[in-house]
Amino acid sequence: MWPFRKKNKKEDNSEKHSAEHAQLLKAIAPWKTKHMRQGWRPIAQIGTVENYKCQFGGIPFVETGMSEAVCPLCGKAPPLFLQLDSRELPESRRTFGDGLLQLYYCTSCEGDGEGWNAHSAVSQFRILRSRELHRANTPLDSIITPRTIVRWEPFEDYPSTDESEEMGVTIGYDFKNDLVNVECRELGLVMKGLSNHINDLDMEVAEAISSAASGDKLGGWPHWIQSPEYPSCPECGSIMEHFFQIDSGDHLEYMFGDAGCGHITQCPKHRGRFAFGWACC
Q: How confident is the model at residue 199 (pLDDT cuts 50, 70, 90)?
């Protein structure tokens, strides 16, 4: 018979914290369900795929008789970053009507033109309504390796930790002892003195409660590198809504600053008005 081994203090604390973390995640579940948003990850193939128009990079389409995109700052052809055909999108995301949405971004003018600014002239949007389209005569040095989006994979997304406090979840930190206090008034939830690290999930409490997915995605919640930055519509002043996320090094062969992340936002009233901004560490 094996002799009984008494648990040491470290083991007791580990079990205690695990139980508290499990209690917290169960209690916070209704809040997560309430704020969950549907997102879609693009599933793409390198190159141009016939009969598909949603793509990262590559040669854009233009309407018959339409001039090709030109950067207003340098006069050169800016690279196509993203092209979305409404007919190839999930139905709930066809928010700009029937047409082809394009984002051009002049990488040559990014610095002087403050390309990170959501309303910078460095980025241009076009919506092509006609179905009489042909490929543009884009110079080779303005073409980013094309990746054609052939389908969309749905997933559940949640607010970033930077936005969760605005939605009723408050996290207070005791950095010296690596502990946190969590409060959610709408649920009547108050938990104090929790270990900030959840060993089973290999993440901190704030991330486990709610964290927006990184990478390229349609819909969902924005994954902010710094603080939330929703621009205002220049036409009506309304706060613009997250539409699409372009992350460094995912499908588009381009890096925003130091591994930054870009966001396309859309006016909730003027559905044809878009903006693009990004931030890095």
A: confident
Cβ atoms of residues 41 and 251 within 8 Å: no
Chain position carrying tokens 């990850």: 41
Q: Which of 259, 229, 266 is nearest to 244 (CA)?
A: 266
| DSSP one-letter string for 150-188 | EEEEEEEE---HHHHGGGTEEEEEETTTTEEEEEEGGGT
**How do the domains of the chain map onto residue ranges?**
43-157+212-279, 160-209
Confidence (pLDDT) at 8: 47
CATH class of 43-157+212-279: mainly beta
Per-residue pLDDT tens digits for 118-168 = 999 999 999 999 989 999 999 999 999 999 999 999 999 999 998 999 999
What is the reported pTM?
A: 0.92
Instruction: For residue 53, count CB atoms less than 10 angstroms from its CB and return exposed for 0-12, middle for 13-18, buried for 19 or more.
Output: buried
Cα within 13 Å of Cα(232), Cβ side: 5
Alpha-carbon span 54 to 186, nearest angstrom: 41
